[in-house]
Amino acid sequence: MRWPIVSTILALATTSMGETLLYRNTFNDTSALQGWVAEGPVNATVSNNTLTLAGAGGPDDYFVYWLPEVFPDRIRITWEFQPIQEPGLAMFFFGATSVDGGSIFDPSLKPRNGSYPQYHSSDIRLLHASYFRRRWPEERNFHVANLRKSPGFNLVAQGADPIPSVEDVQGAYYKIEVVKDKREVTFKVNDLLLFSFDDTKTDTGPVVRGGRIALRGMQPLIANYRNLEVWKL
Ligand SMILES: *[C@@H]1O[C@H](CO)[C@@H](O)[C@H](O)[C@H]1NC(C)=O
Ligand SMILES: *[C@@H]1O[C@H](CO)[C@@H](O)[C@H](O)[C@H]1NC(C)=O
Ligand SMILES: *[C@@H]1O[C@H](CO)[C@@H](O)[C@H](O)[C@H]1NC(C)=O
Ligand SMILES: *[C@@H]1O[C@H](CO)[C@@H](O)[C@H](O)[C@H]1NC(C)=O
Questions:
Q1: Whether the CB of 29 sits within 6 Å of ligand 1
Q2: Minimum-distance ligand to the CA of 50?
Q3: CATH number at residue 126
């Protein structure tokens, strides 16, 4: 199988912070999505260095789209996000493993099809951040971003979401940065901190470590994604 990334040069790239690039996807050709795993109906298209994700099912059929890689703990993930059709909601899943620390694709786990309870209250462990929460009226009249830790529907952090409605986006992309550093998580948009989480005092089960990451969308959201990178801290 051909992975969409990591030429030798990229794998050796480091920042001044001593970080190492683990994964970069510029969505620059049709092989960019090779190895990605869709759960639930998604229409994923790549063009002009942009990944466009839209739901492809009924109004209440949502999707989770897993990257082909398993990542270690202590990573920084960045991407650019542009909502182009609302309402809807975007999420980012990270540190996903089975509850016993194995693969989320272990055949002994329950089947999943994008329906949220299968992810937050079942046999997988993960953190999941929701942003651009515009699916329901109560989300649209007060814009917040949430971090939940699962298994369990544990809301562990929350902050105001500065991303505007589609009509005011005017072609802008919003740079999202998630840092997952052992017990600490931060979530930023355009360098503005929305929330942070320190998993030292919550009674929410074992600390989430390394694992898989995914993009999730709730209909009828259509959104563009660019320049997805994962750096090892
Ligand atoms: C796409 O980008 C990757 C690096 O992200 C590069 O290695 C590859 O050559 C590019 N492909 C095309 C068709 O430009
Ligand atoms: C899938 O997305 C592409 C590009 O966004 C769009 O042109 C096409 O109509 C969509 N197809 C379906 C079945 O939704
Ligand atoms: C392609 O992307 C560039 C850079 O983001 C943008 O300026 C241009 O309008 C896009 N072209 C199309 C056809 O979407
Ligand atoms: C997904 O599974 C749930 C049961 O967990 C079911 O209610 C729902 O209809 C399924 N959705 C799709 C798109 O198959």
A1: yes
A2: 3
A3: 2.60.120.200
Task: Look at ligand 2, atom 1, and give the residue with the nearest C-alpha.
Answer: 43
Is the pLDDT score of 212 beyond 90? yes
Ligand 2 atom with the shortest distance to the CA of 222: 5
| Domain span at 45 | 29-225
Q: Whose CA is nearest to atom 11 of ligand 2?
A: 43
List pLDDT tens digits, range 54-85.
Answer: 999 999 999 999 999 999 999 999 999 999 99
28 CB less than 6 Å from ligand 1?
yes
Within-domain flag for 198: yes
In a domain, 158, yes or no: yes
Query: In this predicted model, what pLDDT tens digit does every residue of 121-150 receive, in sequence order?
Result: 999 999 999 999 999 999 999 999 999 999
- Total tally of structural domains belonging to the chain: 1
Confidence at 9, pLDDT banded by 50, 70, 90: very low
Give the number of whichever ligand sits closest to the CA of residue 171: 3
Ligand 4 atom closest to Cα of residue 58: 13
What does the H/E/C string look like for the chain?
A: CCCCCCCHHHHHCECCCCCEEEEEECCCCHHHHCCCEEECCEEEEEECCEEEEEECCCCCCCEEEEEEEEECCCEEEEEEEEEEECCEEEEEEEEEEECCCCCCCCCCCCCCCCCCHHHHCCCEEEEEEEEEEECCHHHHCCCEEEEEEECCCEEEEEEECCCCCHHHHCCCCEEEEEEEECCEEEEEECCEEEEEEECCCCCCCCCCCCEEEEEEEECCCEEEEEEEEEEEC
pTM: 0.92
Distance in Å, CA 6 to ligand 2 centroid: 29
